Amino acid sequence: MSQSGSQAAAFFREARQSGVVWFVRDDEGSPAPLSADGTRSLPYWSTTARAQRAAKIWGHGLRVESMPLDAWRDCDLPDAAREGHMIGINWSGPRLVGWSFTPVEVLNRLAAGD
User: Fold this and answer.
1) What is residue 28's predicted lDDT score, i.e. its pLDDT?
2) 77 phi, psi to nearest 5 deg
3) C-beta of residue 88 within 8 angstroms of C-beta of residue 22
4) CA pair distance 72, 87, nearest whole angstrom
5) Spatial contact of 7 and 98, defined as CB atoms under 8 Å apart
């Protein structure tokens, strides 16, 4: 399994276990990097430590925040789908790379238990 694949598998396992997802933001919102195909990804992490590393790498005063998994699943993922955003999962490494899924794919993986 690739590094991104193992990070994605860890995301779904850890988020289900803890019931929490983590993200980074500043006063204007969360970063939503543009991919090569022109879609934006909203990145989330499964632990505070993973999100803290991302905030440190991106800098610019980003802070780490959490959200209950149920609220993320029921509110944020449908909003992201309506806006045409992808969901970045446990991006890691010095350039914060990893897999992105559609919100529907994320919901399906959460429901299926991987």
Assistant:
1) 87
2) -65, -45
3) no
4) 11
5) yes
Tell me how crowded residue 23 is: count the other CB atoms within 10 A of its CB: 23
Whole-angstrom Cα distance, residue 59 to residue 53?
10
Mean pLDDT for all residues in the chain = 91
Backbone angles phi, psi at 63, to 5 degrees: -120, 160
- Half-sphere CA count of 56, side-chain side, radius 13 A: 9
Indicate the helix (H) or strand (E) that contains 63: strand 63-68
What separation, in Å, do the N-terminal and C-terminal C-alpha atoms of the chain show?
Answer: 14
**What whole-number distance in Å separates Cα of residue 10 and Cα of residue 26?**
26
The model carries a pTM of 0.91
Three-state secondary-structure class, residue 54 = helix
Each residue of 38-76: pLDDT tens digit?
Answer: 889 999 999 999 999 999 999 888 999 999 999 999 999
Smallest CA-to-CA distance from 21 within 112, 103, 82 is with 103
